[in-house]
């Protein structure tokens, strides 16, 4: 996706995230689309007819509709679709087509893609002076991800598991204040807790429990050193119920008490 895309893309007010009503349908066969539409299903089940070809729709299904596309979609009222849709225009899109993703995808890295989707809707609803610029960048990132996933060769099951566990490890590091249990992480990976624990250590080079503790303590050190928070505030922010236990765990890993690290931060 080139800089040319950023300069040529036009955003519209036709975007959002919605859980479709029980009787929802989407039929543009009598009036095909006049613009582009990035359309993503978060959950639910349904079907999508796009230019005479029918696709199943479920969690992670993504379409990039183009001007002239005719659609007919429906869903199971017992499992309604929740979707994000982003309509946009391109002044002269034909030269850009080789760098754009195809029309149908099952998104692989949903965590990143869904983060972009949510941020797009949020920033466009905020409607600040920078919303359009950020929105264009987020849209470009989403299309780049689809194109990259499309161009990558199919992963061997072992490579897919490695990618999944690294993604979950990144999530732990990103949210150290949230409790992360072996059972919930294993469920996310669709593995038994025992097997997940073994594979996590094999791939990350460290046992899961130690990794969780280490990421929390690394975040604690950052908050003490750079954010002006004291030990009690940091312990509470990171989910510790016992301040003395936090202090002992911190010293065991860092070699210093939380108060010493905080003083070092003040001396910078």
From TrEMBL:
Q: Where is the HTH araC/xylS-type domain?
A: 162-264
Q: Which keywords describe this protein according to UniProt?
A: DNA-binding, Transcription, Transcription regulation
Name the InterPro entries on file: AraC-bd, Homeodomain-like_sf, HTH-like, HTH_AraC, Tscrpt_reg_AraC-type_HTH
Under the heading Pfam families, the entry gives:
AraC_binding, HTH_18
- Does Iron-sulfur show up as a keyword for this record? no
Protein origin, superkingdom: Bacteria
Please list the GO terms describing molecular function.
DNA-binding transcription factor activity; sequence-specific DNA binding
PANTHER family the UniProt entry points to = ARAC-FAMILY TRANSCRIPTIONAL REGULATOR, HTH-TYPE TRANSCRIPTIONAL ACTIVATOR RHAS
> What name has this protein been given in UniProt?
Helix-turn-helix domain-containing protein
Organism per entry = Paenibacillus silvestris
Traced from the root, the source organism's taxonomic lineage reads: Bacteria, Bacillati, Bacillota, Bacilli, Bacillales
């Amino acid at each position: 996706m080139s800089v040319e895309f950023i300069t040529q893309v036009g955003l519209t007010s036709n975007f959002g995230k919605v859980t479709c009503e029980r009787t929802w349908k989407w039929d543009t066969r009598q009036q095909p689309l006049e613009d582009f539409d990035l359309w993503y299903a978060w959950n639910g089940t349904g079907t999508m007819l796009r230019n005479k070809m029918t696709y199943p729709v479920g969690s992670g299904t993504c379409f990039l509709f183009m001007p002239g596309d005719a659609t007919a979609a429906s869903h199971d009222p017992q499992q309604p679709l929740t979707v994000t849709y982003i309509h946009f225009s391109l002044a002269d899109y034909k030269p850009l087509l080789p760098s754009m993703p195809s029309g149908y995808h099952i998104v692989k890295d949903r965590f990143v893609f869904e983060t972009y989707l949510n941020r797009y809707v949020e920033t466009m609803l905020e409607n600040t002076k920078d919303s359009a610029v950020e929105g264009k960048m987020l849209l470009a990132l989403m299309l780049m991800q689809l194109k990259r996933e499309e161009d990558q060769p199919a992963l061997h099951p072992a490579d897919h598991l490695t990618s999944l566990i690294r993604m979950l490890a990144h999530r732990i590091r990103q949210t150290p204040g949230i409790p992360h249990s072996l059972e919930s992480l294993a469920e996310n990976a669709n593995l038994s807790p025992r097997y997940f624990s073994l594979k996590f250590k094999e791939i990350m080079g460290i046992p899961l429990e130690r990794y969780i503790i280490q990421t929390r303590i690394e975040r604690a050190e950052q908050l003490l050193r750079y954010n002006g928070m004291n030990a009690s505030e940091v312990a509470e922010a990171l989910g510790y119920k016992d301040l003395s236990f936090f202090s002992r765990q911190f010293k065991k890993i860092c070699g210093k008490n939380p108060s010493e690290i905080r003083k070092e931060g003040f001396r910078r």
